Amino acid sequence: MSSSQTNKSTDLGERPKERIHLEGVEETLFCTLLPKARDAASPNPILGDPYAQKLVDSAKTFDRWCQEFLDKHQGAPVTVLHLACGLDSRVYRVKRRGADVRWIDLDRPLVVDLRRRLIPQDPPGDYSLRTLDVNKSGWLSDIPADRPTLIMAEGLFMYLTPAKVESVIRDLVDYFKQGELVLDTVSKIYVRYTSQVELLQASGAKWLWGTDDAKEVEKFHRQLRMIDQVWSTEYMGHKSLGRSLVPLFGEGTIGSIKMALASFSPSTYAFGQNVRFAF
């Protein structure tokens, strides 16, 4: 979008209602947006809704790691590449000191169109919003690779096949040469029972890749080295019978029974790993 807007303040306040057209996995952007919206609307954020609190705490981990990367490279040119950005406003939340931070938000065309309508003005600085699809060959070819790059992928890889996850991560590390990769995962048990996950049912999307220990991502590329990891139990708690877990199978009696049964598997408590790699 036009750089002529970069010195203007950005108004993210109340806007007219928009007609929304998203398809399949694109609809899942609201899964993470909802708890953040609940937090923003609460009288005393953060947060009244216990599940929203836990999911927002997870997102705060990404903000913290992003800020640490920017602070570490302060004064040197860097790139932040935000894959599957959805309607996330991280570019407004972190402090981008100086003019040496190139920020690129990426998502699929329908999502980018919606984002441009809801957030019509660019944030200040070197910013661009692009429509790219990781499933298309050569999708990285016109993105500059001349700086250390922070690659952020929140809510993306679980919707790709295991082979595609490995391929995309390998391509990213080969292309950018130096930087960090931050991603989140779901556990294997929720991939196995993805058709039962209530928040996915309306869109028809499915989780296709999961891991019970995200350190195995290091195997995708010899240059990857895990430098930080936050397990779901650190922000969701670890109580019996699924009582402290986000009710992925629904909040009714049947959903509670399913969560209780799932909680007997150690895989349940690997849900929601946030992981940071250097390369």
Automatic annotation (TrEMBL):
InterPro entries: Ppm1/Ppm2/Tcmp, SAM-dependent_MTases_sf. GO terms for biological process: methylation. It comes from the Eukaryota. Keywords: Methyltransferase, Transferase. GO terms for molecular function: methyltransferase activity. PANTHER family: S-ADENOSYL-L-METHIONINE-DEPENDENT METHYLTRANSFERASE YKTD-RELATED (PTHR43619), S-ADENOSYL-L-METHIONINE-DEPENDENT METHYLTRANSFERASES SUPERFAMILY PROTEIN (PTHR43619:SF2). This is Uncharacterized protein.
